[in-house]
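Study this chain:
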Amino acid sequence: MSPDEDLRAARGVRVAVEAFQWTFARSSGAGGQSVNKTSTKATLTILLSDIQCSPTILARLEKLLPETVSVTSQVYRSQWRNRVACMELLCEKLNEASAPPPAPRRKTKPSRSAIERRLNSKRLDSEKKRNRRVTE
């Protein structure tokens, strides 16, 4: 995935490269002599209105994400690699938010053998404790 191409996420979610708003700053952490000279920290910001997808997925995104979605990366010492990392983080965020909700849980009853096992273990524990008592 290149920062110079459109972002294509799962379920037909697409963001045009023109919608990307990049900002760069000096990152913290190790970097040697060039740490105070190069702006390697990358921040990618997009507007939710710039996302192209189906209406149902757009409704899910609007429900779960703010109006402006922003991701930042300063893991790498290269601006290019941080830009690629931002694209991947944004893709993950969009994939997670566009996923359909999980199916509701169906209530089940424990099986007869599970009930018998539980009662048997309770009986054994009770017997064990009864045998510990001192009889006078």
